[in-house]
Amino acid sequence: MTVSKAAVTTVPLHPLLAERWSPRGWDAGHELLDDQLTALLEAARWAPSANNSQPWRFGVARRGTAAFAAVREALARGNQLWAHAASALVVVAAETVGPDGAPRPWAAYDTGQAVAHLTVQAQHEGLAVHQLGGFDRDRVSALLDLPATVVPLVVLTVGRRDSAAELPEVLAAREQAPRDRVPLDALLLPVPADPAGEALA
């Protein structure tokens, strides 16, 4: 029986946020539609960024292509065990220096926002995304012929969940485990006092 993955929150959240999670069990027969892929990338494209710099870059490889196989081979071995069934692998990189040669200190932050937008759009499309930090960045950079100023940050596995997908036992257990987060109070920083000793409003 599948355990509910809906977030337990102190106040109600939009279902696209509350029900989003990162599966490893993919429907290996699912094909990502062109319109769905475009919608995901458009959602990312319209994310906010510092000075509207839009530093995010995406390399898309669909399952069954040579590009997909090459990106999969660059993943950590543990990720290769299940990522092969995803409908697509998306390399996400950040352009850390602008065309004028000026550094973009917020490029990674902004690219993270773009990916967050993409994940919410995926949820709307009936899809899911699992973000992977475990991959060979040098190998991916060489594969995509990236300049030194464009840095791979993450590989996204994109597809349709399959609760019946075969996974190694330890990963199957994670699929069934409820989601959790640290309490909200633990994330809040204390509000500092102003130099006069009065609390800031």
UniProtKB/TrEMBL annotation:
It holds the Pfam family Nitroreductase. One of its GO terms (molecular function) is oxidoreductase activity. Residues 18-65, 74-160 form the Nitroreductase domain. Keywords: Oxidoreductase. Signal peptide: none annotated. InterPro entries: Nitroreductase, Nitroreductase-like. It comes from the Bacteria. Gene3D superfamilies: NADH Oxidase (3.40.109.10). Transmembrane segments: none annotated. Belongs to the nitroreductase family. This is Nitroreductase.
